[in-house]
Amino acid sequence: MITKLPPLVIGDLTIKIPIIQAGMGVKVSTAALASAVAICGGAGTIASVGLASGHIDAATDYVGTSNKTFQNEIRQAKKETDGVVGVNIMVALNNYEEMVRTAVTEHVDFIISGAGLPLNLPEYTKGSSVKLIPVVSSARSTEVILRAWKRRYKRLPDAIVVEGPMAGGHLGFKAEDLINNTADSLEKIVSEVLVMIEKYRDEDSADIPVIAAGGVFDGKDIAKFLKMGAKGVQMGTRFVTTKECPVPEIFKELYIAAKEEDVVIIKSPVGMPGRALKTEFIDRVMDNEKIPFQCDYQCLRSCDVKNTPYCIAKAMCNATFGDIDNAIVFAGQNVVRVTEIVSVKELMDELVAETIEELNKA
Question: Which distant-in-sequence residues (6+ apart) come within 8 Å of 344 by Cβ?
Answer without folding.
Answer: 33, 36, 37, 39, 40, 239, 242, 243, 244
